[in-house]
Amino acid sequence: LNYPLLPGQGAFLEQALRNVSEEAWDTALQLPPYQGPEELRQCGADWLSLPEYPLKSDRVVIATGGHHALMVALMASGMVGQTIATDELTYGGLIAMAKLLDIHLTPCAGDSDGMLPSALQEVRRDATVKGLYLMPTVHNPLGTVMPLRRRAELIAIAREHGLLIFEDDAYGFLEAEAPPNFAHLAPEIAFYIYSLSKPLAPGVRTAFLVLPSEYFVRATEALRLSASGAVPLLGNVTARWLQDGTAALWIATKRREAKRRQGIARGLLAGTNLSGHPTSYHVWLTLPERLPAADLVETLKARGVSIVGASAYSVPPNEAPNAVRLSLGGEMEEERLIRGLSEVAAIVNAL
Ligand SMILES: Cc1ncc(COP(=O)(O)O)c(C=O)c1O
User: Which of 94, 123, 190, 112 is nearest to 150 (CA)?
Assistant: First the structure.
């Protein structure tokens, strides 16, 4: 976990369950429509619409969290057995999922704006490349945000060569000025995953999956066969939080708290090669050559501090860079966060 729950969120759940209407209690116990209840799909469409890019509920389905939505998208789009282009460093969950689904990943180099169009052009010469997995807004683990122009360049290549795009927006909510997402910009080829695990709480197990209309039927079939639909009760509560301002309040608080924690990390690790998004819960620490990432991970583990080496995010055949990701949100207690970061700083600075 690299994002915190806020104190008192549980009390909101208790209150929300007290407010569930009598009618909703009955529906809560029934099998939901496999694509998700219409009210929740509409709520997702409203939540994810921008004035210039309105979304309709007929492109939104409900999955049981981000992993589930991603798996449904990959299965429904026919990616099993195919090749997907990714960033050189990408989400470890996607790497594991690809292994499970027999999907080959091919890494593309990037810069501070994200994947390089020239790198995508290069890998797509391989005819088995059928898709593109991206985290363009607050990348995990690097924290980068892809500007609109880069998004447009990648879309142009994807359109030209018939690639589908899979945007995983697990952390986009942390960026107040996020550009339009790929489902806004390229609705006919983009699958977009918006999990509520991080903006709200992991226990709600709810994600919106926006997809190109032509994949609706296959996605509904994947939802039916993988989970028989999402849990209606939590969907109902979640929709209320999105509509009544609770979600917006939590998101604003999480951004503020992340900014504060970034300040703590940057202070304690001053002088090191640290990067990260200013309102996110992870930082990327590039290490000097004489301190191999695996050694740092082991040394810290022995001292009770858990960090993740770059190898967990690195797509073969590339070698992992000598770097680690530090999570600023896994520890609720600030004192423990400071202790952990101080341990890292002590080792890195002792070199
Ligand atoms: C990039 C990314 N995608 C998906 C997930 C999984 O989301 P969920 O907990 O909703 O399944 C995570 C969780 O850490 C993540 O970082």
Answer: 112
What is the value of pTM for the model shown?
0.96
Instruction: Taking the CA atoms of 300, 305, 306 and 307 in sequence, report the sign of the dihedral they define.
Output: negative
For the sheet with 308-309, list strands across it: 273-275, 282-286, 323-327, 308-309
Question: What are the tens digits of pLDDT across the range 237-274?
Answer: 899 999 999 999 999 999 999 999 999 999 999 999 99
- Is the minimum distance from the CB of 86 to ligand 1 under 6 angstroms? no
Residue 227 corresponds to which tokens in the numbers above?
Answer: 């989970």
Under DSSP, the state recorded for 245 is: S
3-state secondary structure of 92: helix
What's the rounded Cα separation, in Å, for the pair 308 and 294?
9
- In angstroms, the CA 261 to CA 280 distance is 9
- Measured by CA distance, the residue closest to atom 15 of ligand 1 is 170
d(CA 65, CA 74): 14
DSSP code for 329? S
Q: Are 258 and 280 contacting, i.e. CB atoms less than 8 angstroms apart? A: yes
Nearest by Cα to 131 from 113, 170, 105, 151:
105
Atom of ligand 1 nearest to the CA of 195: 10
